[in-house]
Amino acid sequence: MKHISILIPRGHTSVVNIEGSHQIFNEVNSIRKNQGLSPLFKVQLVGICKDTSQRNGLFTIDPDVMIDDVKKTDLIIIPAIHGAGNTMMEQNQKFVPWIINQYKGGAEVASLCIASFFLAGTGLLNGKQCATHWTAANDFRAIFPEVNLVDDRIITEDDGIYTSGGAYSFLNLLVYIIEKYAGRDIAVMISKLFMIDIDRVSQSPFIIFKGQKTHDDEPVKKAQEYIENNYEEKITIDQLASMFAVGRRNMERRFKKATANTVTEYIQRVKIEAAKKNLESGRKNVNEVMYEVGYSDTKAFRTIFKRITGLSPVNYRNKYNREVAV
């Protein structure tokens, strides 16, 4: 039997992550019982204090056990923890050595959504792939440059450490782990019972690109603003470098450092974000939208659009445009 430790952190934590994980892992045991099999998981809520207040006092969770009572576990689930990073780490510092020791002893660790910040704070994500909520990607990269953030992914697995993308994508990670522990048939059953879209791997269709301006490089900010206000034109790196009196190579280096995108990538993402908005709400066809955002090569537009969003322009329009859906 595998021991599952769902952490009950102090502070403002995702109760949905906690209750959802508890329910779904226990449902696996129920399915196995109906099949005449023994339970696969022992699921426990593990805390560092009793009667842990959640959601600013709206809920209180009483853990089953304290961390000192759990000498060995097989999987640690860390729910999303909201709030300032320093406060979050200070309130839950007692978890850190326990998580590290359990991992060194063979336990796997899964962070859900922005729990990636807490897990990265333990040092266990250094040099590993990681997902988080797409809205937090820029902040995460700035704080933890030694972690390989893949902001388009819903699930990552790297050396016994799992992470999930934003919000309810934690359900996809749970199904993934259940398939690994309990087999494909039970994973499919869980996905059907809870109506989880199994095998979904990307959060790209949900990402809203707003630019990365939480930096102090003024020439780069001005270049970003120029791109966003003139995306329908053909913009080159040389043009931007000349406009803002920065050498080409220096502009490329500073732009990448400040925004986590090359100039070309940034231009593409701004154009595609404009195209997405037109496809979501307008009546124009894909080619009309393509020309409006400055593309003339249909194949190039479709290739870039799918790389950034995970969907073709037609599929994106069919999915998000209400008039088309009706």
**Straight-line distance between termini:** 49 Å
- Alpha-beta classification: alpha/beta
For the record, the count of structural domains works out to: 2
By CATH, the superfamily of the largest domain comes out as Class I glutamine amidotransferase (GATase) domain
Runs in which pLDDT lies below 50 for 5 or more consecutive residues are none
Share in β-strands = 5-15%
Using the CA coordinates, give the radius of gyration: 23 Å
Q: SSE order in H/E notation?
A: EEHEEEEEEHHEHEHEEEHHHHHHHHHH
> Judging from the principal axes of the Cα atoms, what is the shape?
globular
Helicity range: 40-55%
Helix count, per DSSP? 15
Q: What strand order characterises the main sheet?
A: 6-3-1-7-9-13-12
Tell how many strands the DSSP assignment holds.
Answer: 13
Give a short account of the largest sheet.
7 strands, mixed
CATH C-level of the largest domain: Alpha Beta
CATH architecture descriptor text of the largest domain: 3-Layer(aba) Sandwich
Under CATH, the topology of the largest domain can be stated as Rossmann fold
Q: Look at the structure and give the mean pLDDT.
A: 93
Key structural traits:
single chain; 326 residues; alpha/beta; Rossmann fold; Arc Repressor Mutant, subunit A; 2 domains; two-stranded antiparallel ribbon; 13 strands
